[in-house]
Amino acid sequence: MRIGMLTGGGDCPGLNAVIRAVVRKGILHYNDEFIGFLEGWRGVIDDRTMPLDLVTTTGILQRGGTILRSSRTNVKKIEGGFERCLEVIALHKLDALIAMGGDDTQSISVELAKRNINVVGVPKTIDNDLSGTDACFGFDTAVTIATEAIDRLHSTTEAHSRVQVVEVMGRDAGWIAVTSGIAGGADVILAPENPIDIDDVVRLLRARWESGKRFAIVVVAEGAKLPEHTGQTSVGTKLDSFGHVRLSGIGQVLAEEIEKRTGYETRSVNLGHTQRGGTPTAYDRMLATRYGIAAIDLVHQGKFGQLVVLKGTQISTIPIADAIAKTRTVTPDLFEVIKSLQPQP
Ligand code: F6P
């Protein structure tokens, strides 16, 4: 078969591991031929491709980013965009397309499937918030990076008797904040799932000081909101082509508020894209490899319009449309874990 592949949306460690797995199994077991579209859906519209074979995909397993590069191109916003996609797919005589991406990228896959394109989806988001799958590759790497940063921040925060606010990624769900916060022993963990209760934050920090520990770490997800803020804290007002604002800055807003209310010297650091960079963890390489193999198998089973997912420890599939229908937020039991480690009101 002739198969196209692309990676769309924000990158995350593990994308190359998926590409490698698809290409290896496809060539070695099914005699497939591949082309890679560059920069997500943009590469399909512009017909910009690169060859994908055993040579071009050698040595990429441990590399972050994506050799296909990525973009947040919304085909729905491009006049004649879908017609152009169909034209380019026909031009390359493709039998199927494997699209790696989160809900935005997969919303285009759904539209193409409706137009009789044989699409298989691979879930990808560092935020780990795609419903239908228990895990997205890249998340474990992001959590590892954030936890290491929190570990490192402990010594300098203690040396200066400060509060250190650490802002991490997580637009609609606080998976990175909650997981790295618990793993890193943060004193306060704030996620988009609940509005920030600043009185409670102050209470927890005062309790910490009174216990004799005169420093504290606060982890906050970029999408967390103070009730008095009408929207999420964003950099400017520019929206990407899927209508999302660029989030950043809740950490600094919170740090100023904490210092004002407690008098404790407070600093903030935004880990930002550091969390998406560099080599994937072994867990993410493994998950990405399993997804890649499942995706190429689905193509050969003729199961199109499906997304490969992880259910417990097993790889499974669900319709792509179901996966993008809602956000997978942090489960209440994890917020209970956080509370169990904190002094009661
Ligand atoms: O959607 C994943 C994500 O990493 C969000 O957590 C973050 O808000 C956004 O992407 C950043 O996007 P960009 O790379 O376009 O700045």
Descriptive terms for the model:
Rossmann fold; 345 residues; 11 helices; 39% helix; 2 domains; 4-stranded parallel beta sheet; binds 6-O-phosphono-beta-D-fructofuranose; single chain; alpha/beta
Describe it for me?
- This protein is 39% helix and 19% strand.
- It is an alpha/beta fold.
- The chain has two domains: 2-137 and 280-323, Rossmann fold, CATH 3.40.50; 139-276, Rossmann fold.
- The strands form three sheets. A seven-stranded mixed beta sheet has the order 3-2-1-4-5-12-13, with helices on both faces. Strands 7-8-6-11 form a four-stranded parallel beta sheet, with helices on both faces.
- Strand 7, helix 7 and strand 8 (216-221) form a beta-alpha-beta unit.
- The N and C termini lie far apart (62 Å).
- The model has no long low-confidence stretch (mean pLDDT 96).
- The structure holds 6-O-phosphono-beta-D-fructofuranose.
- 6-O-phosphono-beta-D-fructofuranose binds at residues 10, 125-127, 169-171, 222, 246-247.
